[in-house]
Design a protein that fits this description.
366 residues, alpha/beta, two-stranded parallel sheet, globular, glycerol metabolism, membrane, lipid biosynthesis
Length: 366
């Protein structure tokens, strides 16, 4: 260990019974590793978690399918079932219907029998997610409990990918020293069952009034900053892409409230699913205008709209960017701090990319 740690790392799977809302973050930190100015060594963030038990694996497959179907894919499969039924193709109709409904039933049985959490942010699905995705969190000393901070934090996460599964609500609460308010697309609050889940984990519709109100209460806010447009960015073996050039509104909120902006890069989010991007960007334009995702994707073993590949994820936090409080910030001030935020994303990516095994990659901001 470095005598003067500059970065901390926590493999969430190592928490075990400590993953509980009543356990202070100081106890979690006893499971941390630390590193100096150079960060963690090459490929150190690629370490794998233990294999899942059959029950854990089943819960993650069905839980992910449940999330995907409730997010809109279920409409696709049930529509196909209805079309097949109307055409007299009863066997395919039953298959599509069963494919949509069976994961719900299996997951609910597992949840009822095995979940003992008092807080939905600490449920069995989060514990299994830690293991399934070998989930790691890395943060600088400025976010450690020993650091003294003033004012709220705005966590800015990229890339969105198909679904940013590396987000662990409890970890953001712990690192921000308080329950975090999450921003989600307003359309998600209109989906059956989804609204209840989002409200339980502390999410709110993405609008200026909600964000300003949370910051005025001196509460932290978190947002997946590239949003729907971020789902349609094409990555390669040598380049990651973050849709951030037009994302200046969050900087205005930070300046108005005097909040600090924290860049967070989710290494591995772009590899969870294989996206099918049309060359004319038609789906992207429709999705952006409707604020919903219409991107086709393939998951585990080429599974259409299926569960995620099992790849390691590392959520890496950059240093907080302190913003002076400006009740009415000028466009020049917004542009200036937006540039600082983009630079912080690049610095965070470049600092830790070798540790994730991406030495050859660069981050392009569009």
């Amino acid at each position: 260990m470095s005598s003067e740690p500059k970065f901390y790392r926590l493999d969430l799977v190592n928490l075990g019974e400590l993953f509980d809302p009543d356990v202070p973050f100081s106890e979690w930190c006893k499971k941390c590793q630390s590193a100096g100015d150079d960060g963690f060594g090459t490929n150190r963030l690629q370490d794998l978690a233990p294999d899942l038990t059959p029950l854990e694996h089943t819960e993650r497959i069905c839980g992910t399918l449940l999330y995907i179907n409730l997010s809109g894919a279920g409409i696709v499969w049930l529509s196909l079932a209805l079309i097949c039924y109307c055409c007299g193709w009863y066997h395919p109709a039953r298959s599509f219907a069963m494919y949509t409904l069976m994961p719900i039933g299996i997951w609910l049985v597992i949840y009822i029998l095995y979940d003992r959490s008092k807080d939905s942010r600490y449920g069995i699905h989060h514990k299994n997610q830690h293991k399934y995705l070998h989930l790691k969190y890395v943060w600088p000393v400025e976010l450690h409990p020993s650091a003294k901070r003033e004012g709220p934090l705005i966590f800015c996460i990229v890339p969105h990918g198909v679904i940013p599964l590396g987000i662990d609500y409890a970890m953001f609460d712990k690192l921000g020293a308080g329950r975090c308010n999450w921003v989600a697309a307003p359309v998600l609050f209109k989906l059956p069952f989804f609204r209840s889940y989002l409200e339980r984990v502390g999410a709110m519709p993405a609008n200026a009034a909600n964000i300003r109100a949370a910051l005025a209460r001196n509460e932290n806010v978190a947002i997946v900053l590239d949003g729907v447009a971020g789902m349609f960015q094409a990555t390669t073996e040598r380049q990651e892409v973050a849709y951030l050039l037009k994302r200046k509104g969050i900087v205005k909120f930070a300046l108005e409230s005097g909040a600090s902006l924290v860049p967070v890069y989710g290494f591995g989010h772009s590899e969870l699913w294989t996206k099918l991007l049309d060359p004319f960007r038609l789906f992207e334009r429709i999705s952006t205008s409707l604020d919903i995702s219409l991107v086709p994707f393939f998951g585990l073993g080429g599974w259409p709209l299926g569960p995620t590949n099992r790849v390691p994820l590392a959520m890496v936090f950059g240093q907080p960017l302190e913003c002076p409080q400006k009740p009415v910030p000028s466009q020049g001030e917004i542009d200036c701090y937006h540039t600082h935020l983009l630079d912080s994303f690049k610095e965070t990516f470049d600092k830790h990319k070798a540790a994730y095994g991406w030495s050859q990659k660069t981050l392009m901001i569009v």
